[in-house]
Amino acid sequence: MRVIPNRYQEIAETLARHGMGFLASAVGIRHRVPFVRNAFAPPDESPRSIAVRLRLVLEELGPTFVKLGQLLSTRPDLLPPAYILELSKLQDAAPPVPIDAIAEAIRAELGDDPSRVFATFDDKPLASASIGQAHTATLPDGTQVVVKIRRPDAVRMVNEDLEILRNLAERASRLWAPARTYNVRGLVQEFSDTLRGELDYLREAKNAERFADNFESRADVAIPRVFWDTTTSRVLTLERVSGIRISDVQALDAAGVDRPLLAQTGAQLVLRMVFEDGFFHADPHPGNLFVQPDGSITLIDFGMVGELDPELRDRFVDFLVAFTRRQPGDLADALLDISVTTSGADRDQLRERMASFVADYSNKTLSEIKFARLATVLLTIVRQQKLQLPREVALMFKVLIMVEGIGVQLNPDFDLMGVLTPYVRKLLRERLSVAALSQRMYRASSDAGALMLELPTRLRRILERTDRSGVEVHLRAAELEPLMTRAERIGNRLVAGLIAAALINGVGELVVSERRWRPWSNSLLGAGVTVVGSLSGYLLWTSRRHR
Question: What number of CA atoms fall less than 13 Å from residue 545's CA on the CB side?
Fold first, then answer.
C-alpha cells in the first residue's frame, strides 16, 4: 500500500524535475525537494511551454492528476487558452486489468462468473481507463452490450490522492494569494465530488436514463439502454451502439447523410439540453456522438454532466440579452451576477472592458459572430478581472464551443448564434409570462418576509454586544451575510446596500442614544421601511427593464 508521506515527496520531486518547483513552494512542500538552483523560480517561458510542463507533470503523477487536468481543461474562465489546449490532450488511459481480476469483480458484484452471467464475454478489453475497463458482451437474449468494470484499487488510490489535494489546497490558500483569489479549496472540493461521482456507476446509469426520458419523444436522438439486472456501483451494463463518428465527414458523405442538417440537429440537441432541460452532456466530443444512416444521433458516455437551475439559466439569458442589445453596463452587471467569486473585481474597470467588448461587435449581425471567438475574449476578461464562473456555466461555454467546432466541420456556413437565438427568445417569453412573474413575485415576497423575521434577531444580538461592551460596537461582515444573501435573492444588489445602510444607521443610533428601546424600535422600523421600499422599487424596475 502506498504511504501518503512518500506521495507528497513524489509530487514535489516531479514538479521540480519538470521545472515547476515554484508550484511546490506555492503548496507548501518545497522542503521535500533538495535545493536545486532556480528550481523554485517561475519559468521565464511562453505560456504554452509552461502548459506543456504542467501536462507532463499531471501525466506522470497518475490517474487522479490526469483527471484533475481534464477538469481544468473545462475551465476557460480560470486558465488561458494555451493551458486549456494542452490539458485537453490528456488521455485517460491505463494498462489493462488482467481478466482474472475482472472476473473476480464480476463474481463479487453479480454473483457468478462472466461466462454464466453473460452469453458471451470478450476477455480482451474494448478500452482501459484510469477508473474502469470496458468489455463487450452478449446478454442471454442476444442483446449486445458493453460492460464497464471499476478497477480493483481505483477507490483507494483516488481517495488517497484527493486527501493530498485537499491538504495542498489548504496550504496554498494560506501561502499563495492567487489560490485565495480563485478559491482553490472550492475547486478541489468540486473536483473531489466530480471524481467520486465517476467512481459510482449507478450515477452514470441514472444520468443515461434521465437523458433517455428527456428525449423519449425525439426520433432523431437515441440513448443506450441501461440493463439494471447487471448494473451496480462497480459494474455498468449498457446497450452497445454503432454508427459513424460525427467527425468522419467522408463516411457521412458515403452514407448520404445531409451534413448541414446534421449540424443543425446536433446543435439543437445540445441547446435543448442546456436551455430547456437544464441537464446536459458535458463532454460531447466526436467520440461520444455517433450518426446513423438516417441522420439520427446516438449519444454515449454519461459520466460528465452539467446541470443549470432556472435561476442560473435566467442570469445567463440576461447576459445574452444584454449582449444582443449592446448594453455594456447591463452586460457587466449580468457577468457579476453569474460569477461566484467577485471580491477581486473592479466594477468600473469591468464596465469599461465590457464597453470595449461590445464595440468590437457593434457593426456585426449575430450571424456574423463566431461563438468560440466571442467566448474566448469574454473569458479572458473574466480571468483578468479575477472573476470565477460556476462550474456549470464554465462547462456550458466549453460545450457550446465544442458544438460550434463540430458544426463548422460538418458545414462551413454553420451559424451557432442563429440556432441559439430562438432559445433565448423563448426563455424571455417564458420569463415574462403571467405565471413566471407571479412565481418571481411570490419568491421575492417570501424572501422579504423571511428577511423581516430575521432582522429582530440580528439586531438583538448587536444590542446585546452593545450592552456588554459599552459604546464600542464590533460589526462583522459575517453578521450581515445571511441578510445580504436573502436580499440579493430579492433581485438587486442595491437592496443589499440599502439594508446594510439601514442597519449601520440603526447601530449608530444605539451608540449615541441613552434610551435603548427607542433606537431599537427606530432601527427596526427604518430597516423595515427600507426593505419594503426597496422591494417595491425592484419590482417596478424589473417590469420596466423587460418591457
Answer: 15
Residue in this structure with the C-alpha cell 463474481, named with its chain if needed: 107
pLDDT higher than threshold 90 for residue 93: no
Q: Which amino acid is at 173?
A: S
Q: C-alpha distances in angstroms, 167 versus 170, 181, 286, 440?
A: 5, 18, 37, 42
| Active site members | 283
235-264 burial, b at 16+ Cβ within 10 Å, e below that, comes to: bbbbbbbebbebbeeeebeeeebebeebbb
Tens digit of each residue's pLDDT (9 = 90 or more) over 504-542 = 455 445 444 444 444 444 444 454 444 445 444 444 444
| CA distances (Å), origin 420, targets 218, 277, 480 | 19, 15, 40
- Report whether 483 contacts 499 (CB < 8 A): yes
Comparing 439 with 12, the larger pLDDT belongs to 12
Side-chain-side CA neighbours of 514 within 13 Å: the count stands at 0
Cell numbers linked to 90 = 490528456
Q: Are 114 and 121 in contact (CB under 8 A)?
A: yes
- Element counts in the chain: helices (H) and strands (E): 23, 11
Closest CA to 99 of 55, 59, 137: 137
Confidence of residue 32 (pLDDT cuts 50, 70, 90): confident
pLDDT at 14 over 80: yes
Residue 324 corresponds to which cell in the numbers above? 444582443
